[in-house]
Amino acid sequence: MAVAPEKRPARIYEGSRIPQPTPSVLQVPEELRRTDDILEVNFGPNHPSTHGVLRLIVELDGERVVGLRAVVGYLHTGFEKSMESKTWWKAIPYAPRMDYLAFQANELAFVMAVEKLLGIEVPPKATWMRMLLVELNRIHSHLVWLGTSALELGAISPFWYTFRERDRVLDLFEMVTGVRMHTRYFQVGGLAEDIPRGFFDECRKFVDWMPKAVDQYEQLLTQNEIWLQRTKGVGLLSAEDAIAMGQSGPVLRGSGVDWDLRKTAPYLAYDQVEFDVPVYYNGDVWDRYKVHMDEMRESTRIAAQALEGMPGGAWIADDRKVVLPPREELHTSMETLIHHFKLVTEGFRVPEGEVYLAIESPRGEFGCYLCSDGGPKPWRVRFRAPSFIALQATATLMTDALVADMIAAVGSLDTVMGECDR
Amino acid sequence: MSFAGVPGVVEQKVDRGETTLVVDPARLPEACLHLRDELGFNFLSDVSSVDYLGWSDEPVAGYWGGPAGRDHNRPGTAGLGKRPAPKPKRFAVNYHLLKVRSGARQAPRVRVQVWVDDGEHVPSVVQIWPTADWQEREVWDMMGIRFAGHPDLSRILMDDDWEGHPLRKDYPIGGEPVRFSGEE
Fold first, then answer.
1. Distance set, CA B117 to CA A283, A352, B25 (Å)
2. Helix (H), strand (E), coil (C) string for A279-332
């Protein structure tokens, strides 16, 4: 039995809680600082509950958090710089490796941005298959979030249940792309390979099962007294503050803003499928949890419709200047051989220009800004990482909060440090 | 959408369906306030920067090429068929703005662009969009562009004592000195 969501926006707190003058740093008030009772605690960067290498410097007055500063950058690996030194084609595998949970969403953003620069048409079968895979990927990402966040708050069982379904999603990815993670299945112009026989049957079995699995997770958590106490009214963020701090995805929707790029700026075939955008109005950890749960159900709905409506035909565009020619033609056509050779040695050239393309990744607005000088390598690659933006809001979330709630609040932001630090 | 009333606009471009407003850096806060309060662009998606070093010089000096320009013989570094259009200054800072309205079914975007040379400052927009805090720090860290009026402009992704700004085109890839923690 589900709790009926509040339909009207609730007043979460008066005014704005964004700290001044630095919006990402909660500063200890001067009169408290003078009492000499402030304890400074270093949390992380190697702590199992920070989802990677996040460091928080917390100042405590008893159990109350009075000062907080997040330190990031421990996982900075220079993805953007590396991608600038590769050809467009060879830069694609970098994109999924930033975020090891929402890999296909990142890959999609980069590939779609290159396609926007090129102005190339993608065949419908590739579009629908991309949509199916990124929705499965969203389920995968939310499952890992749910399992680990619950684990951090002491609920061990959901972790085992969520990883059971996660493994089934990874099996599907392995079936269609050959690898379980970091698939590199999206190619500029379409897909890297055709969809293997038998995939749709397996996928349909999973899609039929998944809503029941979500019910099981909800049975474990939604009415659980400890879970409710740990999450209700914790980590508050109002709608105005969420927009001012650039929050997106489940965090924004948990704060009562009905905003989803799949609805507001439809890409792929999202305007041809039916789904709802879950919105909750209390801006706490529990609401973010509910948004994640509902999104898994909605993603399953989209995946089912994608399976129904999957068109046939080509899986990659027929553009010999960008797309590798079919293998069998290489033995008979000189032209094909030249195209193949040029593409593999030099790569394709992308017309001069700059684009910003944003998609709704499981974590929110994932943007890709590309700048091309007309050559075979990107001049500038830049990612708008939702995790990086989300972590700025830690100080706002932890205003007037207790230190025990910090794990719940930071966990609910659903951050992946690989994507945050890039 | 009309951007006629935005103060400080030097040029308005539309390319691939994206609108770019080139703004005079000195009047950036004014323009941003107008865009936020009058036109409703309440959401700052992204602050990004580009280094156009050697962009349209003769010969094209890509940073993977030698001092004389791009090495035309190395695989994957072929020269350009056509030289790209020259840019007014070395660095561009782009602000990608979005209009977020609960329940809306459209997402208008606009890109605000300012041009600066090495050493020139850009006014900070942290007071207009608090989310610019870390984004401007990242631009300073990676590209070495200073933001005047930022409350705490320090490095964010690299170490505090790191030398150089990695995403500049004259910063080499590979070949960084190995550093040990006990080093003098």
1. 43, 22, 11
2. CCCCCCHHHHHHHHHHHHHHHHHHHHHHHHHCCCCCCECCCCCCCCCCHHHHHC
Question: Mutation test of the interface with chain B: which of A54, A76, A413, A415, choosing the one with the most B Cβ atoms within 10 A?
Answer: A76
Nearest to B105 among A73, A264, A373 (CB): A264
pLDDT in tens, A228-260: 988 888 888 888 889 999 999 999 999 989 999
Nearest C-alpha in A relative to B65: A85
User: Which two structure tokens, joined as six digits, stand for B169?
Assistant: 């085109």
Interface ipTM: 0.87
Cross-chain Cβ contact A259/B100 below 8 Å? yes
Q: Which of B12, B24, B36 is nearest to B131 (CA)?
A: B36
The H or E element spanning position A361 is: strand A353-361
Q: Is-contact B97 B44, C-beta < 8 A?
A: yes
- Tens of pLDDT along chain B (184 residues) come to 788 888 888 888 998 889 999 999 999 999 999 999 988 899 999 999 998 887 765 444 334 444 444 444 444 444 555 667 778 888 999 999 999 988 888 889 999 999 998 889 999 999 999 999 999 999 999 999 999 999 989 999 988 888 888 888 877 776 566 666 676 5
* Span A334-343, average pLDDT: 88
Contact A389 B131 (CB under 8 A): yes
State whether residue A261 sits within 8 Å of chain B by CB: yes
Choose the CATH number for A79-318+347-421 among 3.20.20.150, 3.30.70.20, 1.20.1260.10, 1.10.645.10. Answer: 1.10.645.10
Looking at the complex, does the CB of residue A15 fall below 8 Å from at least one CB of chain B?
Answer: no
Q: Indicate the helix (H) or strand (E) that contains A335.
A: helix A334-345
Interface contact flag, A374 B82, Cβ < 8 Å: yes
Interchain contact, B45 vs A377, CB within 8 Å: no
Which residues, at least 6 apart from A231, have a Cβ–Cβ distance to it below 8 Å? A153, A284, A285, A286, A289, A408, A412
Residue A92 forms beta bridges with which residues? none
Q: How many CB atoms lie within 10 A of CB B97?
A: 23
User: Under DSSP, is residue A398 helix (H, G, I), strand (E, B) or coil?
Assistant: coil
A320: Cβ–Cβ under 8 A, 6 or more apart, which residues?
A335, A336, A339
Contact A117, A378 (CB under 8 A): no
Q: What's the gap in Å between the CA of B156 and the closest CA on chain A?
A: 6
Architecture of domain B9-52+87-148: 2-Layer Sandwich (3.30)
C-beta neighbour count of A297 within 10 angstroms = 17
What is the per-residue pLDDT for A314?
87
Domain range annotation of chain A = 79-318+347-421
Provide the β-strand partners of residue B9.
B23
> What amino acid occupies position A132?
L
